[in-house]
Design goal:
The chain is an alpha/beta fold. The protein folds into two domains: 2-115 and 239-305, FAD/NAD(P)-binding domain (3-Layer(bba) Sandwich), CATH 3.50.50.60; 131-235, 3-Layer(bba) Sandwich (FAD/NAD(P)-binding domain). The protein is built from six helices and 19 strands. The protein has helices at 12-23, 56-71, 135-138, 154-163, 183-190, 286-305, and strands at residues 2-3, 5-8, 28-32, 75-79, 83-89, 92-97, 101-104, 107-109, 113-115, 131-132, 146-150, 169-173, 195-198, 201-208, 212-219, 225-229, 232-235, 239-241, 272-274. The strands form five sheets. The chain has a five-stranded parallel β-sheet with strand order 4-3-2-8-19, covered by helices on one side. Strands 10-17-11-12-13 form a five-stranded parallel β-sheet, with helices on one face. Strands 1-7-6-5 form a four-stranded mixed β-sheet, with no helix packed on it. α5 links the parallel β12 and β13. α1 (12-23) packs parallel to α2 (56-71) and α1 (12-23) runs parallel beside α6 (286-305).
Length: 307
């Protein structure tokens, strides 16, 4: 069969799109490897509109339940399936996954992004041995230990806040004097006497035999190297859009984000839309991702009905 729409991705954008597709009675295939968006690791999300506070896992669970409640006969939910490529030949769109190939009239890419890795000697070798990308997952293992957080955005400061609940000390290191985090978040975390900020420093090496034992950084102003004796390193240095499966199909920016028309979320290829963190939208948040997806679905519905 040929689907009206295929939605790729199980985060806030994908789930919102799936609910709208079901309500508009579009025959839809929904493909996601899992429901674990980047927010899954958060212990407390306080800006998901309509809910005062919930964990990342609670958000993921509610998104899945909402979609399944409306899916009915219109949305086929394929969990545990990964999209490997989207092709367009002779005007026909094909979705190639690790399990099958499907035909579709339109596509919404809502594949999100994944965490950027720390690229210094020792980081790969000691990942999951003291170096981690999830404070809420691994933080309790470092009770009464000295740790480092690498990054300067909200995620870095939120991770530091979590770690301060049980770690002996938390040192946050950032490449510049400016931070991407909200001023209120920075102020709240900085009040803790066990928290320290280091600016204008660049990570150089992760040291340790079987486990992390030290973090070496270079001062950008003095060029001096310094080693901090720490037991844990938590990395929050941004994300990379998950768009490799459409790199030969749609136009991407130099970061790999899908270029879209912000009025309707259309990409450079007719029949293909994108929403959420995988796009070149100026701001990336859960609420924005869901809103972008709804905008896209309204446009997709009109485009399909015009044929």
């Amino acid at each position: 069969m040929i689907y009206d729409l295929t939605i790729i991705g199980g985060g806030p954008a994908g789930a919102a799109a799936g609910v709208y597709a079901a309500r508009k009675q579009l025959k839809t295939m929904f493909i996601t490897k899992d429901w674990n968006s980047q927010s899954t690791v958060s212990e407390g999300i306080e800006n998901w509109i309509g809910t005062i506070k919930l964990s990342g896992m609670e958000l993921a669970d509610s998104l899945e339940k909402h979609l399944r409640a409306y899916a009915g006969e219109f949305v086929d939910v394929h969990v545990g399936e990964s999209c490997e490529k989207v092709e367009k030949k002779n005007g026909e769109l094909s979705i190639i996954t690790d399990k099958n190939t499907y035909q579709t009239k339109s596509v919404l890419i809502s594949s999100g992004s994944h965490r950027r890795k720390l690229d210094v000697p020792g980081a790969d070798r000691l990942e999951h041995k003291g170096l981690t990308y999830c404070a809420s997952c691994d933080g309790p293992l470092f009770k009464d230990k000295d740790v480092v957080v690498v990054g300067g955005g909200n995620a870095a400061f939120e991770s530091a806040a979590q770690l301060l609940a049980y770690c002996k000390s938390v040192t946050l290191v950032n490449r510049s004097e400016k931070f991407r985090a909200d001023p209120g978040t920075i102020e709240a975390v900085s009040k803790n006497s066990h928290f320290k900020l280091l600016t204008n420093v660049v990570p150089k090496e992760v040291k340790g035999d079987r486990f992390v034992e030290g973090f070496v950084y270079t001062d950008k102003i003095t060029s001096k190297d310094t080693e901090l004796k720490v037991s844990g390193i938590f990395v929050e240095i941004g994300s990379i859009p998950t768009t490799s499966f459409v790199k030969d199909l749609v136009e991407l920016d130099h970061y790999g984000h899908i270029k879209v028309d912000s009025k309707n979320q259309r990409t450079s290829v007719a029949g293909v839309w994108a929403a959420g963190d995988c796009t070149d939208g100026l701001y990336h948040q859960n609420n924005i991702a869901a809103g972008d997806a709804v905008k896209a679905l309204e446009d997709i519905y009109l485009a399909l009905r015009a044929k």
